[in-house]
């Protein structure tokens, strides 16, 4: 199929401890509260034209509300909705005007494992700015990684239905393939899928301006006593830097920079053995990849599958 998805827009989280989560993502993670209402906040990245890149919604239970992607035109949105319907994918809503900040035209559907996915076009561009040298604030949402108990089937689903292409795979001699990096544009990955006992969010990653800004942001979180899971280091797959932290509810969030851009016509996926220390961290500065690191990123089982968020 032709690829109708152009890029990642935002990730939406339901959170029980709403005020504490909001304080973390604004005061420490340095997202900007673009608009908010009672129990819901839309948080933007300073360098991004997207209206918001994280939505927080107060709820009694923690869950991943949805992942949103962009399409170029309303016609593409309609075409994708029609393709998905014809292929038996469950639509949560049909294409229509969106009521979220920036408006636009879009629809929602369930992926193979019941996550809610939104695709939209014609969302108004947010007044954004160039992030300056030394500013350790997110430029944009880089990518989202999800956990799956049937990752091979889920990778095939995103390829078949949404046109995502495989960039690289992480594997090991003992456990087999463990993570698949998928792209919807020349960026090495906008989505990745990790093997896990249950459906959940693995992590959401935010691009900083450069190495210095990435290290300053990492240091700010360390000084504030935020629990670090892994990093700082530089992965081989994607060639990007990484520092993983836990938000107050145990969701893993990452600061990164310099994620690789590919020549899609020439690229051939690699199979990387992550038991090689150079694969996990080219610099050798991060704590070793361990069961602790893996388990932290399993997150809590998401009990919101096949249940569309109320907003």
From TrEMBL:
CDD domains: BphC5-RrK37_N_like. Gene3D superfamilies: 2,3-Dihydroxybiphenyl 1,2-Dioxygenase, domain 1. Residues 7-122, 140-258 form the VOC domain. Keywords: Metal-binding. It comes from the Bacteria. This is VOC family protein. The lineage of its organism: Bacteria, Bacillati, Actinomycetota, Actinomycetes, Pseudonocardiales.
